[in-house]
Design a protein that fits this description.
- The protein is mostly helical.
- The N and C termini lie far apart (84 Å).
- Among the domains are: 58 residues, no CATH class; 47 residues.
- The relative contact order is 0.11.
- Strands 1-2 form a two-stranded antiparallel ribbon.
- Helix 1 runs antiparallel to helix 2 and helix 3 packs antiparallel against helix 4.
Length: 154
Amino acid sequence: MVDEHPARTNHIPIISHLDISIETHKKPPRPNFRATNWKEFKKVLAMKLEGLDAREDINSESEFFSHMDKLTCSVTEVIDTCIPKSGLVPYQKRWWSQALAVRCTEACRLACRAYNRRTEPEDPIHSSHMASRKIYGRAGQEKPLGRLSGNTGQ
């Protein structure tokens, strides 16, 4: 017991080894509905729904739930096969859309052309640049549903 005491102390040191590693949680890839080919999706969904037993009369609650489960499974299968997957980027701009990217590119292109003609204030490029900046600014301030309402996929 004397061998275990360090010199000039009256206690025994306790050494503890703790495993405090953190498990990383990977989120599964999510469907990217914006990049979907909607014509193909509708075609595959129509074929899948034709294979279901669609009767007009449902006699019991269990039969209703059975039909509902088959319909849900069919739609889920079509979503899994036809809609591309994308991972969640930590710094993703969820409000950004492809239409907004096009407007941004156009505004930047016109800004370069207006800058090149900055010594000519009467040039019409300046007015078209200001108009495109206003359109781009308004598009960035819209609500997300307002931007997506025109994207029906048809």
